[in-house]
Design brief:
The chain is mostly helical and about 120 residues long. It contains five helices and two strands.
């Protein structure tokens, strides 16, 4: 396990125990995020890799927004690609572009290799 994976595992362990709250605009509540993490066993539903992020299927702000069924674990790279290519996700163009820019900031240089940049969205 890499140092980064170990760090993420520790962060999620603390979060699932209620000892750490990760706040982010547009994020799932702490409780739902921990349930998604536990359901998916901390792994991406796309690749099976250690997952960094609980990602929404649908960003529409309604009664389903903050539910376990509306989320899945993805790596940061997969989350970026999901926002880039799946544009009918409940966000406006500007909202999706903003999300892409924030996710891009979380990617390491090696994770950015071969990805379209947010300015090409």
């Amino acid at each position: 396990m890499s140092e980064r994976e170990s760090r993420h595992e520790h962060i999620w362990e603390l979060a699932s125990l209620g000892l750490l709250v990760v706040a982010s605009f547009g994020a799932f509540s702490h409780k739902v995020r921990a349930q998604i993490y536990n359901r998916d066993r901390g792994r991406s539903v796309e690749s099976g890799a250690q997952a960094d992020e609980a990602a929404h299927y649908d960003h529409t702000r309604n009664e389903n927004y903050d539910t376990v069924e509306n989320g899945r674990m993805l790596t940061t790279r997969e989350h970026y690609l999901d926002h880039y290519y799946r544009r009918n996700n409940g966000l406006s163009y500007q909202g999706n572009k903003w999300a892409l820019e924030r996710i891009w900031e979380r990617l390491s240089d090696s994770e950015r290799q071969g990805l379209p940049t947010p300015d090409t969205f």
